[in-house]
Amino acid sequence: MTTDVELLGQAIKRAQYRNHRAMDSALHDVGVSLVQWDALRAIDRMPGASGHDLAAVTFQSDQAFGTLANRLSDRGLITRTSGHGRRIEHALTEEGRRVLAEGQGLAGTVLPALFAPLDEADRATLLRLLQALLAEG
What we know:
Blueprint: H1 5-28, H2 34-45, H3 51-57, H4 62-74, E1 78-82, E2 88-92, H5 94-114, H6 120-135
Antiparallel strand pairs: 1-2
């Protein structure tokens, strides 16, 4: 029997949507959206990174990330400074670190609940399969 790859793709999309809705809802209590928290995570993982690099890892266009970074800066969550040439470098402020940590605490409760239907072996298999799928690209 052949797997319906259209159904498979839709199932992946639905699981992703469920994850995003749950995290976005939980992060509302911290005062950020999932997109904003994802940007804070990326900036934390890549100190001094350019807007272009951060846009790529957060699945955004350069322009969209620039708009988002301006909002995060206006809220006092990040700083943006001139780097080499036209490069703008990004860093978390103390408030940004606090919001990031609160979000990580929420993720520690929300995400395990989302994956609760899978036992640890199934979670490991799912992760391995998704990593194999992504390695092709």
